[in-house]
Amino acid sequence: EPSVACEVCEGAEEMPEPLQQCTAWLRAYFCEPATTGSLPLPAFHHPLLQKDSFTRQVLWTLLRDVKFGEAVSYKQLADLAGNSRAARAVGGAMRSNPIPIIIPCHRVIRSSGDSGNYGGGQLMKEWLLSHEKLQKEKLA
Questions:
Q1: How many domains, the chain?
Q2: Domain CATH code at residue 109
Q3: Could you read off the pLDDT of 26-40 as tens digits, one per residue?
Q4: Which residues pair with 109 in a beta bridge?
Q5: pTM of the predicted structure, to 2 decimals
């Protein structure tokens, strides 16, 4: 089976460390997903992820609790984040996610099993979910 070459442009060693971490994490996500759990996450300085809010709580809960190859409904994520009646607010949090893929908002789907909306478009969301499902099956 052909392996996909994942390379970053020359001069990568001169990147600031958070950018190196981000690059390493994304490379692993697409090429060696089993290793993402052992990599350090880059420091997130986005104001949305700093100030105390339900959106921040939802995004960190998603990052921490919904693993590669899993999916969660808006309602389930609201539950996990501490407010079972806030499914619509979870949708708002997903729309304002400053770092999609790393904070995996593509894993949040409708209770019906329908994939639901995605800022990057329907095809991208379905591709990411399918990528994770296939990679998880390969590892099993």
A1: 2
A2: 1.10.10.10
A3: 999 999 988 888 888
A4: 73
A5: 0.85
Q: How many residues does the chain have?
A: 140
pLDDT tens figures, 68-82 = 999 999 999 999 999
In angstroms, the Cα distances linking 14 to 41, 44, 79 are 19, 20, 42
> Is there a single domain that holds both residue 54 and residue 37?
no
State the residue range of the domain holding 24: 15-42
Task: Tell me whether residue 9 is one of the annotated catalytic residues.
Answer: no
Angstrom distance (rounded) from CA 47 to CA 80: 22
Q: Which residue has the tokens 């697409």?
A: 30
Residue 137: Cβ within 10 Å count: 9
- For residue 115, what are the β-bridge partners? none
Catalytic residue among 6, 9, 22, 105: 105
Domain-embedded: residue 1: no
